[in-house]
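Sample intake sheet
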Amino acid sequence: MSDDWTPGAVLLQKMTDCLREPALFVGEIHDEFDLLVPPASGEEYIKRVVLEAQQCDDVVVAEISNTRLKPPVAAVHPLAGCVEAPSTVTPSLDWQQCQLADFSSLRLDIAQIKNEILNSKQLRQSLNAHLPGTEDQEGWLHYCLNNQRPLLSLILSMNQPLVEQGIELLIETIEEKGSIGQEHGEWTYSLLAALELPLNPETCSSLRSLARACSVIRAKTAEDNAQEIAATNLFICLVARYFRQMDLADP
């Protein structure tokens, strides 16, 4: 007996013949079958599907009109870097490290005091400042910048959403004014010291905006304006090196 007719080969041939048989019997399909007429039965629906499939090309290539193609444009990243500082006002690495150490120590002190407050009902009740809510943006800015200095007791009264909201509002004001006044600098530094990690995306974006705004202010500030130059250098340093936005850092 030939090897072609072993029991396995016979079984394989039968399976192949079965696969070649149509799964559904649809009968003869005439060329005059009208595809525009709704099918009246399941059989007619299957015939329509088969006829439409027969009319489709095996390979379809889309035709693209060159008139619809736009020339490539240079991409502008939404988180572009800082404006380079003039060499005469660029902070040294030692200065930056000193600022980071002071800032880190202040944040540690605030965290320890917050922990003590959480464990003391009496201390919590003593910090009962009536601050405007996050929805009252103008009221919050007026309250803080015109009536109050960022005392520790006031900063500790603020919950984290209010701290984040305050930072965003202050940064927007700095961007609009194109300068950093003493009250804006004090409040921004104080709220950054109370800002908890990790940063949410919105706050991270605001901090990057702060660093870029400071770099623009610094680039146009007269060299004898030591206070504003120091403030811009400080905030760029903190955003870049403490809050880990290293692409914005000064050398």
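Comment: The chain has a mean pLDDT of 78. The CA atoms of residues 64 and 77 lie 29 Å apart.
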